[in-house]
Amino acid sequence: MNVSARLDILPRTRCLPRSPVLRLRGACCAILLTTVAAAGPLDDLAAVVDRSSHRASSHDPTGGNQDSLVSWAPGETHVLLDVDGPGRITHLWFTAARFPNHATLLRDIVLRIFWENSPVPSVEVPLGDFFGLGHGRLYAWQSLPVTVGANPCALNAWWPMPFYRHARVELHNRGERSIRRLYYNIDYELGPIPPGQGLFHAEYRRAPALAGQAREGNTGGADNYVILETEGKGHYVGCVLSVDAAPGGWWGEGDDMIFIDHAAEPTIIGTGSEDYFCNAWGYAEAFSYPFYGCPLLEKRPDGGSRTTVYRWHLGDPVRFSRHIRVTIERLFDPGVLNDYTSVAFWYQLEAVRRREPLPPVPGDYPLPDDARTVREIDATELEPALRAAGIEARSMTAELSAGYRNGGWLRIQTGGKAVELAVPAPVDGTWVVEMKPVNHLIDGEIVAGLPDATPVHIPRRHDAEGRAVHEGEVPFIELGRAETRDGRLRLMVGGNPVIGLDAFRIRRAD
Predict the structure, then answer these.
(1) Cα 287 vs. chain centroid, distance in angstroms?
(2) CA 410, CA 441: separation in Å to the nearest integer?
(3) Rounded distance between C-alpha atoms, residue 227 and residue 241, angstroms
(4) Which of 91, 102, 150, 456 has the most C-beta neighbours closer than 10 Å?
(5) Domain 374-508 class in CATH
(6) Backbone angles phi, psi at 354, to 5 degrees
């Protein structure tokens, strides 16, 4: 993926040539903005306060280098920080090992933060979206409170998060697969906090099939997309919006409308969606600045686009005394359905008292592109279906030097019986199926077969000295051709009580 690739999704009704003067003016503005933004966090840096510094992390308590959460199953929750106040969280850092065929990882992991012993999380957001990684993609970007490193697995946030009585931070695996390896650091202080500090909040919303709305007469915002609605006293500090737009679905014309303290008409109204996100005249390339940006801009194969934009109200927070509703119009061509995902960030004096549950997976996953001719499938993708069928299966983690395709493999407890596997295929048709087994687990041989094809007997491979070959040297074994059924290619494996599978490769045969 080239996130800097140009994408011509300018609105049809407006255009503006970019003269050398405009380019120079834009560069000067960027320098000025960076200078102003950099001064903010330094304002009280010299103040000596009566607090102690601490860190909660995934460090190896034995003193070794296994500094991560390893292979936590679907439904499991890990508490990362549980501490009494007063205090303040100053920095969050996470990274997950890059296993490229677990495409849903960033939506599977949910970050939850609870304040003041509240049973309701003030933050409950998929990990990737919290750090501005829209559409389940990994890409580097930088802003003042949130950055993703040049290695786009390095997730950082510097939102100040004060608390008075208690703080708890946890990660939950809501996905259907085990999480393989994840690292974290949470930096925090303990000590007196000035009165009147707001509690940090974030809310995730998703509308996967959002239709365009009427272009005329919308003064009350009844059909707008809602980014945030909450009761209390505090201030809104910004959002991230990700739009997966169909052809003809340019989303940037709708006005932002913010309703404060139950106002019937918008208290704040803007001039267009791209204008609210501080840009103008559409988006031509990806960029990220301290207060606003468009870190992802990507063409879809069908002519649509994927865009992620953000806007931080750090110098201009939107304050409310009882209630706020932040909305944006969705003005695009009639009949077009766009996929909207957003995360709102705000502070308020008390923790929220209720929260809508997150959309369930797999319905909350980003929509995939059209099928590729050849697709490699990590065997761990089969774990959920096997577990649902009552078969003991587990994604196993291994060092990259062990030679597996994606840093691990799938362990299946067959009990000596043949087990049916359902390999996902992106479109219906005839596919040639290849399988890469885990060599060191083969005792004698295993058997794999497709419907209407001769079963293939796969022995353990040895080197010239009689030792099992390195897993990186184990080839893919062709099993034959198969037709899809309900989006799956069925095959059987058996012959050993425990079987390990590394990966599958399928290619179109029709």
Answers:
(1) 19
(2) 11
(3) 9
(4) 102
(5) mainly beta
(6) -150, 160
Residue 414 and residue 393: Cα distance in Å, rounded? 9
Q: Domain 20-35+49-348 carries which CATH code? A: 2.60.120.1390
Give per-residue pLDDT as tens, 34-51. 434 444 566 678 889 999
Q: Rounded to whole angstroms, how far apart are CA atoms 401 and 403? A: 5
Q: CA-to-CA distance for 244 and 396, rounded, in angstroms?
A: 33
pLDDT band at 216 (very low <50, low <70, confident <90, very high): confident
Exposure of 17 by Cβ count < 10 A (0-12 exposed, 13-18 middle, 19+ buried)?
A: exposed
Check whether 318 has a pLDDT greater than 90.
Answer: yes
Q: Which residue has the tokens 């509308």?
A: 207
94 vs 37, 88, 341, 356, 372, CA distance in Å? 24, 18, 21, 25, 31
Spatial neighbors of 316 by CB under 8 A, at least 6 apart, are none
Residue for token digits 């590394």? 502
Lowest mean pLDDT across 64-68, 108-112, 271-275, 393-397: 64-68
CA distance 69 to 196: 36
Phi-psi region of 103 (alpha: psi -120 to 50; beta: other; left: phi over 0): alpha
* Dist CA 96 CA 106 (whole Å): 9
Alpha helical stretches, state H, 176-292: 273-276
What confidence tens digit (pLDDT) does each residue in 467-487 have? 889 998 899 999 999 998 888
Q: Is 221 left (phi over 0), alpha (psi -120 to 50) or beta?
A: left
**Residue of 107, 142, 139, 130 whose CA lies nearest to 30:** 142
Burial of 22 (0-12, 13-18, 19+ CB in 10 A): exposed
pLDDT single digits (tens) 142-191: 999 999 998 888 999 999 999 999 999 999 999 988 888 899 999 999 99
- What is the tens place of the pLDDT at every residue in 70-83? 778 999 999 999 99
Name the nearest CA neighbour of 431 among 360, 375, 354: 375
* Structural domain boundaries in the chain: 20-35+49-348, 374-508
